[in-house]
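#onboarding

Welcome to the new folks! Below is a worked example of what a typical request in this channel looks like: someone posts a single protein sequence, and someone else replies with the predicted structure as tokens. Don't worry about understanding the tokens yet, we'll cover that in week two.

Example request:
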Amino acid sequence: MTPPATPASAVTTRGPAHTDAPAVIALVGSTATGKSAVSLALAERLDGEVVNADAMQFYRGMDIGTAKLSVEDRRGIPHHQLDTLDVTEDASVAGFQADARADIDAIHAKGRRAIVTGGSGLYVRALLDRFEFPPTDPAVRARLEERAVIEGPGMLHRELAAADPVAAARIPAQNAKRIVRALEVIELTGRPFSSSLPTHEYEIPAVQIGLDLGNEALDPRIDERVDHMWSTGLVDEVRALERRGLRDGVTARRAVGYAETLRHLDGELDADQARDLIKVHTRRLARRQRKWFRPDPRVSWVAGPVDAADVDRAAADVLALAGS
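Example response:
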């Protein structure tokens, strides 16, 4: 069940910087809850422009499998941070932060309203919050990565627990990439990695509204969406991206929908198995996204639209909470 909406008075909308700018409306939540449709309705009502915060929609050509709005479906509303990367490139949180903040400044300079939409929680936090990026050193990281391979991530996790118990409690012992990053930061800065993690403090004025649907409504919608993706050319899309280097892309090739379809093309899964696995993994992704946003006390929640006819109702609920 979707919890009662948080009153607008309970939402902090001002950060320490950019206080003369209108509050960004950030539409967040799980995949398939109707964020794209509602963002269009908001943009039309507010003379707004949309800034994408779905990391997989950064990739050119990853259209069907990410449910990216086509140019025609955008209804003439400018969209930013779509199609910014080739599939061989890694998405960068720091790069996104800089570029998307510049987009927001440009939107507001035109007297229009910025509407951020997406379910990639880390990217939303980096965009809206005070979020600094600790230094990196390729040599240090390579050494730690080699140790993770030889000794196993469990050994490094024990070192992390001794050096920074807070970070160790947040990072699973199997997640070698995050363990290595935490130890790298500790070695380079001499400070706990946990001290560099973002807090719930806005850098730019913002209101975050989460769209939610109960699993009993969301799961069938996910299944229907995957069936539609498969029937409208997901396999052909993946074949085309494969020719453009999809298998060489560390991030893109692992995206839900694309990883399973690559296994289908390799003969590991038949069509039904691949489609069913995409549904399972998409449901898991939706639950992870919900789990990410739920603890943030600044996110107000409304029920996502149950169908196309319900989009205006959802948009009105968002506007009421946003005070717009």
